C-alpha cells in the first residue's frame, strides 16, 4: 500500500482523488512540522504533499530512501531542493495555475485600497476618529501599474488593472506577449521610475533575492506604492521600512516575508508592523476556497498518474515522460545517470532475461535519464534486482 503524507492543511479534494484511485493510506497534518518531526512523520512515506512552508532539503531526502514523488500543493517550489530530488530519482509536481486568479484579485483590491489610504482611514475610524478628507486619496483610473514578472499571475493582474482604467507596464527577464494595452519596459529601472503602483510577481530563489533593494526603492516615484505577494526574499524589508518611514513611498501591501511565522500562534516579527497605510497579510495571496480545492485535485491527480503510470508530465525538476496507456503490459520505470549507452544497458538486461519490449520512452534532463519500458508478460524479482544493481541505476520500479 502506497503511504501518502500530507502537510499544511491541504484541501480534502486531494484525499478524494487519492481514495478514488484506491490510495487509502493517507496521513494528514494541519501544519508544517520542524525538521526532526517532519523526518519522523515521513518514515515509510512514498508520496509527500506540502505547501509553501515545509522545507524538503538534501538531508531529509537522504533520510527517506523510499520516497518516490513530491507534490507541492502551490505554485512556488523554492522550498524543495529540486536538484537533490532529481538526482535521487524523485519528481516534484506543483499546481502552476490554480491559485493565480486569487493572487491577481487580491493585488487589484490592494491597489485600490492603498491608493485611497483605506488601511490608515479604517484604523482611524476604529480608534474613534472621523478624518473625512480627500488628501492623499486617488482613483486607480489613469494611474500606472508596474508589474515585475509578467508570468501567469502578473499578466492576469494587468488585465484586471486595465479593466479598472489603469495604464499597465511590465518588466520580465523573458520576452512576453503583452496582453491588452500593456507595454513592456526594457529595464526594471524604467518601470520603477514611471509606476504609481509596483507589484512583484517573480519567483523566489537566488536570482530575485533583494531585487527590490534600497536603490530600487529610491528609483520609485515619490508617493508610489509597493505590493509584494511573490516571495519575502524579493524585497529588502529594512530598506522598504526606511522608504515608508521617510514618506518616499505612500503605502505597501506585503503578503510574504523573509522569515514567516511557523504557525498560527506565532507573531510576525517585522519593522513594518503598525505602519500607516501598510497592509500586512499572512501569506494568503493564493488562499481561497476555489483555489485550494482546485489545487488539491490538480496535484493529487498528478501524483496518482505518476504512481499508476509513471508519467512525469508537469514535473518541475525531472525528465518529462508523457502519459501513455500501458495496454496490459508490465511497466518498468527506470531512473539512471545520464551517461552514453544507458538505454542499451537497460535494454540489454531485459533482453538477457527474454523480455520483449513493446514500447519504450526515454527523456533526459541534465544529469538524469528516465525510461518507461512496457514489456510483455511478468517481470521477475531477479530482473528487477539486476536492473537495480546496475552502476547507472538511480532507482527502478515496476508497475
Ligand atoms: N502569495 C501567495 O500566496 C502566492 C505567491 N506566489 C508566488 O508568485 C510567484 C509568481 O507566480 P507565477 O506568476 O505563477 O509564476 P510564473 O513563473 O508564471 O511567472 C514568473 C515570471 O517572473 C519572471 N522573472 C523571473 N525572474 C525575474 C526577474 N529577475 N525580473 C523580472 N522577471 C523575472 C519569469 O520570466 C516569469 O515570467 C511564484 O513563484 C510564487 O513564488 C504564487 C502563488 C501564491
Ligand atoms: O503557491 C504559492 O507559491 C504560494 O505562495 C501559496 O502558498 P501556500 O499554499 O498558501 O502555502
TrEMBL record:
It catalyses: (2R)-3-phosphoglycerate + NAD(+) = 3-phosphooxypyruvate + NADH + H(+); (R)-2-hydroxyglutarate + NAD(+) = 2-oxoglutarate + NADH + H(+). Its EC number is 1.1.1.399, 1.1.1.95. One of its GO terms (biological process) is L-serine biosynthetic process. Pathway: Amino-acid biosynthesis; L-serine biosynthesis; L-serine from 3-phospho-D-glycerate: step 1/3. It is an enzyme of class 1 (oxidoreductase). Keywords: NAD, Oxidoreductase. InterPro entries: ACT-like_dom_sf, ACT_dom, AHAS_small-like_ACT, D-isomer_2-hydroxyacid_DH, D-isomer_2_OHA_DH_cat_dom, D-isomer_DH_CS, D-isomer_DH_CS1, D-isomer_DH_NAD-bd. Pfam families: 2-Hacid_dh, 2-Hacid_dh_C, ACT_AHAS_ss. It comes from the Bacteria. The keyword Oxidoreductase applies. One of its GO terms (molecular function) is NAD binding. Residues 331-399 form the ACT domain. Catalyzes the reversible oxidation of 3-phospho-D-glycerate to 3-phosphonooxypyruvate, the first step of the phosphorylated L-serine biosynthesis pathway. Also catalyzes the reversible oxidation of 2-hydroxyglutarate to 2-oxoglutarate. Belongs to the D-isomer specific 2-hydroxyacid dehydrogenase family. This is D-3-phosphoglycerate dehydrogenase. The lineage of its organism: Bacteria, Pseudomonadati, Pseudomonadota, Betaproteobacteria, Burkholderiales.
